[in-house]
Every structure is written in structure tokens, then in C-alpha cells.
Amino acid sequence: MKYLIGIDVGTSGTKSVLFDTNGKEIASCTEEYPLYQPQNGWAEQKPEDWWNAVCKTLKYLGSMATEGEICGIGISGQMHGLVMLDENNEVIRNSIIWCDGRTTEECKEIEEIIGHDRLMEITCNPALEGFTAGKIRWVQKHEPENYARCKHILLPKDYIRFMLTGEYATEVSDASGMQLLDISARCWSREVCEKLDIDMSLLAKVYESPEATGYVTEDAAQKTGLKAGIVVAGGAGDNAAAAIGAGVCKTGKAFTTIGTSGVVFAHTDKPVFDKNGRIHTFCCAVPGKWHVMGVTQAAGLSVNWFRNTLARDVSYKELDNQCEEIKIGSDKLIYLPYLMGERTPILDVNSRGVFFGLSAMHTRAHMARAVMEGVSYSLYSCVELLKDLDIDVSDMVACGGGGKSKLWKKILADVYGIDVKTLVSPECAALGVAILGGVAAGVFASVEEGCDICVAEKEKTEYESSRHEEYMKFYGLYSKLYPALKDSFKELSRL
């Protein structure tokens, strides 16, 4: 028997999953680690924590793969994080990760230096706080001694690749989120790098996602319990990986994932971008193809925050059960999920979370349901934007932690006005990169073939038109709240 491994280096933890070559999950292991917030709006993690988690999870999977051979590995992970290595390959500072919002001034400078329209032409996206280019510029300005020591710049999953293979490599989907890649040409932009004074020798070699990028070294084999010589594919950023694991590899297919962040993602055969920069256009994990996506910064994070702050005594399932008793609209309570600022559609790092309409009658269950509804409204705004760009999102899959909640799937379907499917394997990102590992290993002839073999539908949650109409009443009010609070958010950031 042959096995494939998918590694997903997430924000709250790393999950490694062992699959057979039909996409059946054999074993899974998760190891958590902390997030550090030195200041309000900042977010950092230790790359060493990711590697320790990978080693622990791979040791477990290796112990479970006793009846066959592990022939391919794919790596997924949180996008945009800045990992800097010195000449000895030591980590210079904590990684500034995707949800960090410190680079507002640097993003303004990038737009001024390159020009908004030219930046959009090359990278298909405006300069955003979450992207890596702004983080690099922040270190250049505020920690010049650290930048002077830097010899290699990697993304989170690519740091894990380096630790596994000794290779400095990345791939097009994750590199798209650095704002240094020419999205149409699928290579580093010399123009952007030179204008931002970034030495291109610091950047890793760019591959297509299913290409072989290296092989497990003897040293990594000792630390992980795997055999040396296993091929490691390019892999993909977390959302591009989840798309492959959800079978979204052809035009007309889309998915919603609710992890720490939330994403509405659709496949396209050509780069399509919103001139206002409200959605992201990146290279996808299918060679020569692209995807568009809208992002909600704090999706599952909102529910995690709520439970950890106000509902530690109940499980997520118990919280779901309590919320089912609450009617649509949470008795006129609306939540804005801006705990970490927001991307789509408002692009405002200063925005913050809000409960609107809170009264003495509201219970913890009302608040919890309002959180789920508020995140769903935010994701629906992404769906609406994609429709405005004539992108078909009618074939919708739900995955991620939120996709495991029966209630949340029903809320999504009714808010979207679209049937929402779930899949046999809930581990879309891990399965997606395992498929990419299978292509690199020669198990599958193409990404599309791997999806056809490994991705299977489990069930469909149908929307009800009457419930959609009811949700739209509250969505209409939800849509008015940010414009009313925009200036107040800015004022709050200055206090």
C-alpha cells in the first residue's frame, strides 16, 4: 500500500494527515502552539514551534503507516507570514504572520513607490497589511539590524519545507500573497523587488504547486521518524490547498472555508481582479490557472474568542445546540467580526468587533449565534463581490472547522441562498496538498486526476428561500453598520 501525507501549518496548530492513494484518511495528528501579540493589532509566532509540531505529528503518522510506503508529502500553511533566516539558517526574529496589522504606513509607501494601478497590473492586488511585502518593508525601517542579517526570506510552510529538505523553495499560490510575484507571469517581479529595495537573491525559487521541490533529508528523517528520500511537492497556501481538497480545480466550482479566517474561493482559467482591490487574485495550485477569493479575517477566530472569553464551560457542540434554539437574527443582535481588522470588502485594518443591538434580554446563546451569523454575513459579502465579477459560485462546498458545524452550514446555506455541500474528508487543506504530493510522486498524472480519485461528496445542506429572505433583512442593516462606524474606528485607533 502507498500513502500520502498532507501537512497543514495553521495559525492555532499544525495538523498532519496520512491518506491512502484513494484519498481515505488513515490517521491524523494535531499539535497546537501559541500566538503572540506584543501590541494591539500585532500578531507573531515562532517558526521553531511550527517545526516542533511538524516533527511530533509526523512521528505519529509514521507509526501508523506500518503496512505500506509513504511516497509523497505536500505542505500547506497560513499565508503571508515573514520568516527570516541568517547565514547559518537560524531564525532571526519571530514570524510576523498574516493577521498582523502593523504595516499600514508601509503599505501606503508601497502604493506611492510603485503606483496603485501598476501594482494592480503586476500583483493583481492593492498593498494590504496582511501581505508579506509590507512586513519586509517594516523590518527594513524599524529593525535594520535584523534585515542586514537576513539571507533568506521564506513563508511559513516553506520554512517547514526547508527543515524537511534543505531547499529554499516556494510555489506560485503562496508566493502570490507576498505581493512580490507577477501574477500573470507566475514569477518574481524584478520591477517590484527593485523599487522596494528587496534583493531577489533573498527569495526562494518558485515552482508550480504539484512539482517536486526536494526530498526528506537524513537529518529530517531522524527528527520526524520518516524515511529519507520521500519527495516533497510544492504544496500550496492554505486556501489554494483547501480548494484542491474540495475538488475546486475547474471553472464554476467554489468553496467556503471557515478556519481562523474565512474565505470564499472560486477557480478561474484567467486572472480576474477587482479594480477596487476588494478581493484577491492569486495563482492557484493547478498549473497555469488562477483563483479569486474574498477574506474575512476573524471567522473561526471570532467563535474561538467568544468561547474562550465567555463560554469556557461548554463545548462547541453544546454551544451549537444552545444556538439552535435562537431564531434568525438572534433577536435583533448583530455582530461585526472585525477582531483583527478586515479585508473583504472594507479593507480596513482599524475596524474592530462590534455587538450591535445588545440588550438585557440577550443571553450567551444569542451572542454566540450572532457571532456565527455575523461571520456568515461577512462571507456573503464576498459571494456578492464574486457575482459582480461574473464569477459562478453556485457549486459551493463548505470546509474547515466551521464546516463541521451542522448549524453553521445551515446558516451559510440560508444566508447565501445556495445549497452547500460537504465532503467525505473534512481535511480539505491536508488532502489537497497530499494530492499535490501524489502528483509529484507520480501517483496521479495531474491535479485534476487526483481530485477525481480522492474527493467525494458526503452530504448537501439545502437553503430555504423564506429563511434567505429573512436573513437578508438583517444583512441589509449589517451592511450599513461599517459605513456608520468607519470614522469612529479610525478615531479609536488614534486614542
Number of domains: 2
User: For this structure, what is the CATH homologous superfamily of the largest domain?
Assistant: ATPase, nucleotide binding domain
Number of helices: 17
C-alpha termini separation: 61 Å
Determine the structural class based on helices, strands and strand pairing.
alpha/beta
Report the biggest beta sheet as strand number plus sense, adding barrel if it closes: 7 strands, mixed
Mean pLDDT: 95
Stated plainly, the CATH topology of the largest domain is called: Nucleotidyltransferase, domain 5
Keywords, separated by commas or semicolons:
495 residues, alpha/beta, Nucleotidyltransferase, domain 5, 2 domains, 7-stranded mixed beta sheet, globular
Describe this structure in words.
The longest helix has 30 residues. β1 and β2 form a beta hairpin. This protein has 2 domains: about 240 residues, Nucleotidyltransferase, domain 5, CATH 3.30.420; about 220 residues, Nucleotidyltransferase, domain 5, CATH 3.30.420. The protein starts with a strand and ends with a helix. It is α/β, with parallel strands linked by helices. The protein has 17 helices and 24 strands. The strands form 7 sheets. Strands 1, 2, 3, 5, 13, 14 and 15 form a 7-stranded mixed β-sheet that branches. About 40% of the residues lie in helices and about 20% in strands.
